Amino acid sequence: MTTRAGFVALIGEPNAGKSTLLNRMVGAKVSIVTHKVQTTRARIRGVAMEGDAQIVFVDTPGLFRPRRRLDRAMVAAAWGGAADADIVVLLVEAHRGLTEGVGAILDALKERVAEGRTVALAINKIDRVKAETLLALSAELNEAYPFAKTFMISAEKGHGVDDLRGWLAETLPEGPWLYPEDQIADLPMRMIAAEITREKLTLRLHQELPYQLTVETEGWDDRKDGSTRIDQMIYVARDGHKGIVLGHKGETIKAISQAARAEIAEFLGRPVHLFLQVKVRPGWLDEAERYSEMGLDFREGD
Ligand SMILES: Nc1nc2c(ncn2[C@@H]2O[C@H](COP(=O)(O)OP(=O)(O)OP(=O)(O)O)[C@@H](O)[C@H]2O)c(=O)[nH]1
Ligand SMILES: [Mg+2]
């Protein structure tokens, strides 16, 4: 049997639907998704099998003009994912088209991505536009960059996703599989659990707050009774943020904890006892350890 295997990096502006596509390709939620921009902070791998091919999808943080150290480290992680991949898939939102941000990504692709590297275009969220507009958008984007192939997809609804997966499988180089056949992700469980809690925080909290907090799993105990106790720390940047995260009589943190616990338990397939604490740490955005916990390179943020 000739096997194929390789890395496929999903890149695009924040909110383009990269994590949604990764989850659909893998058939499980390994990367968190919200309606807000800059949800994903680090590279997250998900493994999909297609016939004799193993496709390792690399979800990346959205590409945008970074301001903070964290932003810069995120954008660097995204470009690093693209540089290491066999195939790059650029996601563009159908209803937004060739935005300034997409234009900047195309310019950077020309500079950064080695000649001969396969770059495909996936116009996503086609469920949001009329079919007639897609042809023109595809032509416009292909004029701006020589894509190897263009796909029209809806990561959320699943349209066009099988076509894309099939093409990726036949385009990847021949080679042995990189992961065991039944593995879907390579993120440690404690990190997935922290991400799930961060997703619930992001969904629940408003404005800048989700961008100024991070979650770390500090304790993990698989108990004899079949349940797991998980202790997590939520670092916030300001005193005032702690009160908001806790909420009136602790109602906010309670709701977040319940939602996160249910999803972590489902993922693990066992009951979970989740204990959340909130710590004010004004400098966390400039602490190297926080970055390594997130899977980011601190120095890339310099
Ligand atoms: N209508 C529609 N919405 C979609 C589709 N794909 C993703 N979305 C929505 O778009 C939003 C962003 O999705 P994500 O998968 O988090 O986007 P992302 O590119 O990973 O975003 P960042 O991690 O912030 O860079 C979510 O609300 C998704 O439900 C789609 O095909 N159609
Ligand atoms: Mg994402």
TrEMBL record:
Span list, region G2: 38-42
Pfam families: KH_2, MMR_HSR1
Domain KH type-2: start-end pairs: 205-282
Membrane topology: Peripheral membrane protein
Domain Era-type G: 4-174
Function: An essential GTPase that binds both GDP and GTP, with rapid nucleotide exchange. Plays a role in 16S rRNA processing and 30S ribosomal subunit biogenesis and possibly also in cell cycle regulation and energy metabolism.
The protein's name in its UniProt record: GTPase Era
Taxonomic lineage from the root: Bacteria, Pseudomonadati, Pseudomonadota, Alphaproteobacteria, Rhodobacterales
Name of the coding gene: era
